[in-house]
Write a structure and sequence with these properties.
By secondary structure, the protein is α+β, with helices and mostly antiparallel strands. The chain folds into 3 domains: 404 residues, Ammonium transporter AmtB like domains (Ammonium transporter fold); 69 residues, no CATH class; 219 residues, 4-Layer Sandwich (Phosphatase 2c, domain 1), CATH 3.60.40.10. The protein contains 25 helices and 12 strands. Strands 3-12-11-8-9 form a 5-stranded antiparallel beta sheet. Strand 1 and strand 2 form a beta hairpin. The termini are far apart.
Length: 716
Amino acid sequence: MEYDVESVKSFIDTLWVIDCAILVFIMQAGFMCMETGLSRHKNSINVALKNAADFGVAVVIFWIFGFGLMFGTSWNGFIGTDLFFFKTENAEYMTYFVFQAMFVATAATIVSGAVAERMKFNGYLIITILATGIIYPIVGHWAWSSSYLNNMNDAVTQLLVVTGQVKTTGWLTDMGFVDFAGSTIVHSVGGWIALAAVLILGPRIGKYSNANKGKFTGSSFPLAVLGTLILWFGWFGFNGGSNGAMDETVPLILINTFLAAAFGLLTGLGISFALFKKPDPYYVILGPLAGLVAITAGCNSMTSVTAIFVGIIGAIISIFVNELLNKYEIDDVVGAVPVHLAAGVWGTLAVGLFSDLELLDTGLTRLEQIEVQFIGVLSIGAFAFFGSYIVLKILNYIYPLRVSPLHEELGLNIAEHNATSVEHDLIKILEKQSDTGDLKIRGPQDPFTAGGVIGLYYNKLMNKLEKSETEKKIWRDRISNEVKLAVQVQENFLPKRNLENYPVYGINIAAREVSGDFFSFYPHNDSVYFIIADVAGKGIHAGMVMAKASTLFEIMSRDKVDPDEMMFHMNNDLFLTKTGGMFVTCILGEYNLITDEIRWVNGGHQPAVIRNEKGEYQKFDSNSPPMGVIPQKDKSVYHINKIKLNGNKFYAFTDGLSESENQNGEEIGIDGSIKIIEKNFNKDVKKQLTEITKEVIKVAGDKKLSDDLTLISIGK
């Protein structure tokens, strides 16, 4: 079979574009790695799934109508009117569709990283449809529509194009606007949509608190750097494939792409050394990506020296805009706005400033080209930002795009996908180990999370338990030290505290190394949230459940959740994260210092007691079920008790007090507990609670405490 030169060239060009499309597809993996690495571990699964889902949604939407809106026969240069449900028997145009589909997926993925850690999965898919089905295709039509129909081989179509009976060019193309591979069309559009989304969503909880100072540590900077390198690699296809053919222009495109990124990286390094005296990993990521975005618009029409300059300025602008966003508390998790929006705008304007006018071939003077580039950036930016902002604002009113504060604190891995956390996995493993006695089982370990640290030390403990029988004595000596270390880790992890400036106090005496009882107070200006709880069990298993319950209490106390709603959410969460019949009894509520009113819910716990001015005690028995037994459909099963103290005292205690036995095996009981409280009432509250616990221990004598003992006092 003989081939003419034109056929061979066509084949090579098609093969080149296919190869480049594959490289652009690999960029999706780069985005996933970078965004996952810069997000916290509790949201990593959610981020990864968004990157996979938006690609699939983008391609489907683009096939149905996006391609037609972008490349179809033009209506007055503003929008395409045909080519919907794209199909063709021409291999070149099949290839063209695949390559463009990779581009539209990239535009959607840019948004993913910016809104990470606080946006609902379904809400993000809606943004993907908006971006890939409407905004991107329309602005793409303005500047790129002629790249499809103008090159068709069909003689009839060409005749219609030439005679003006079929319009294929967008209005920006008619003006001479140039954006070779999409600094604006792809990257800035994604950045504008991302900016609109983050402004509506607001920053992550605690991102700009004094403790964090605008920084959250991502789950893995090495993974983020790997993602950056994958993106750099794929960018050769992104820019090189935009040429549409393998010709003498491709080497210039590739070397300009490479140099802009390399000098962008060096710029990031230089700025980080200048500011921090050491290389900041975030700046090292921003630098090359900004250089790549900036050079994308003019990589085919600039000299290598110019490309270097564009990459350097792009990196500087990106880092500056990143700091500007932090200053105004605009939370962009991965720097999508600084990199894709800011550097994209700069790169598009740089085409007019520095490109070789002969290579551009627009027939415009330098000043005219700058003007047209500015008009293109401004019009596309206005449409992308205001269009997406208005739609998302309306959507957010109808269907809130942000997850609840509780879900955000827990992490979207669990909240959105029911995926496990380190703490959850650790409890499950401990339960299995407790049931089976299998010492070969190991827990998850992660030096960057509290649960992972506990798992780390617990695994060390299990390693020592597997030593031979001949080393048992050595093992027993060592195990004592390891348990003490585990207790220290737990004590640091659990939010147990008393408050100096509030009329509340509590005390806890553990019967074993790891306590299943706990109390906690969480202050809010004029009120205090409180909890006293008893896990139905002892040891490490009970301690881990206690840790989970304590963490949930503190998370919801921050958001001033009502006691009944708090009990409802804690119950359902604990039911999902424990097995083996373990449950939690508790009293939790809120004390208002101004009104002297106390509100509480008693979930299967010992009665709360209130002492009045006459020295009389009123008992309030449990009126709600304990937590973790069965899931509840609503909060109505939890009943709020409410009373004004009027200067009286509120007491709550665990059964470690009331069920403690004397030497004769007789329980103290509720009435006996009240007598001990009254006996020590005239002492200051701290000494009062201390003396009560001492007396209980004294009554027990040689029997010692059989259960954890916890007691709290509230009231002025």
